[in-house]
Amino acid sequence: MNALGKISAVAWKDVLTEVRTKELFAGMFVFAVLTIITFNFAFDLTGADRAASGSGALWVAFTFAGMLGLSRSIALERDRGSLDGLLLCPVDRGILYLGKLAGNLLFILVVEVIAVPIFGALYDLPVYRPLLLLALALGTLGFASVGTLFAVMAAGTQAREVLFPVLLFPLSVPVVISTVKAAELALSGQSGEAIPWLNLLVAFDLIFLSLAFLLFERVVEE
Amino acid sequence: MVQRRGSAMGRVSAGLGVVTAIVMAAALYMMFIYAPTDAVQGQPQRIFYIHVPIATIAFLSSFVLAVGGIGYLVRRSQRWDRLARASAEIGLIFTTLVLLTGSLWGRPIWGTWWTWDARLTTTLILWFIYLGYFMLRAYAGDADRAARYSAVLGIIGAIDVPIIYLSVDWWRTLHPGPVLFTSGGPAMPGSMFVTFMVSLLAFTLLYVWLMYQKYMIESVKDRVAERQFQLAERQAEIREGMAL
Amino acid sequence: MDRNLLYLFVAFFVSWLVMGGYLWSLSRQVQNLRDEVEALESADVPTATQAGAVGETRAQTDPGQA
After folding, report:
1. Domain range spanning residue B84?
2. pTM (predicted TM-score)
3. What is the value of ipTM here, to two decimals?
């Protein structure tokens, strides 16, 4: 089996588990939509400047849902002992990381695919803009690449629920800023100005994907 | 402090401590007596003499933290982890001080305690990274795992800091621009520049001295823990022997 | 007093307070380590002789029991 096959095998294992147990997706999705709705009571999301606050609300909703999913998916793996099983496989640790990342990424992206149209309908915003969707996808990749690494680390400690956000939030500040900015500019039709933010996102994704790929091996060795 | 007083290491450490104290006293004298009062900012400008050296140390510590982390992951020696441990503690303290002194300067000069500008925001995030570092160590359990996990966090954190700075800088910025190394010499009177450099030297000496002390404390701690473990094992053996 | 001087005073005061507090905590750590090393040294010597004594008595009594 080549590397791509191995990655998809690990991700497919996660999808199969989810289809059978249904422990992750429903929770993440409902949480994301509820966050979007709750923001409506916190800010005025019907005014003229709703592109700015709306893009923030959307990204915060996906960040929270993504964190919930990441921490749950790794914690389940640790509790069932299936992480040890995975580590026993004669597969490079970096490949395992990419497989777990692909699985997590898939869950978050499916949540986004359903939640973004709901968001657009609720706040009457033009969400079907390629730049907006690109910004969300790149942001999700960056968030999930650091998140998967830290979720595995946090799951190995005694205070996983507390530690995970404490580690992840400060380090993902650049993702939050650039995704929200790019999404806001895309929503308000200033696509040209969104390009530098997308470049920053791509740079962040590349740096953190390669860092996490290299460091994952050191996290799971026991 | 930890080593025996007569040893060569102890003498170097004590000597460094004395030199640090003398240079720091000279720097304090220059800050308050030698340097003139700033024409625009008035007295609070003197905070600058400690604020900037402290900030330098705070960010330098995050770099040393990453170096210690890389060293540990490559060499697997407790020495590198000790370096990281010492650096994290000093980094957290100096980052706290940067935020405090910066706020106390900003209030009279800018009229506000805080702004969301690039340097302030990056420093605040750095503070949270140090905090997360200590929580990770505290909850990680055994020593090797704590060292490995925190090495990973230290490396990622140090690489993230410039990216955070860049992203916040694009987002908004208000912090005064560089006043030290602008083209055409420092944008301040010579006496102020000299005062700043002496202060920077004093804080650098303080940093080296603190790092040395903390490193030594950590290494003795490791050895004491090792001996306590051995002792407990031996006592258990004896108890077994008596039971027989 | 000038309010500006107050900010200057507080900034320096807080900085030296924190650094002084850190130095104090370092010296406390050193003191604790000294105590622990002393405890280890005093605990080490008797247990070593005890272990020897226990070993000897066992060596003496075991053949008799057998």
Report:
1. 2-243
2. 0.87
3. 0.90
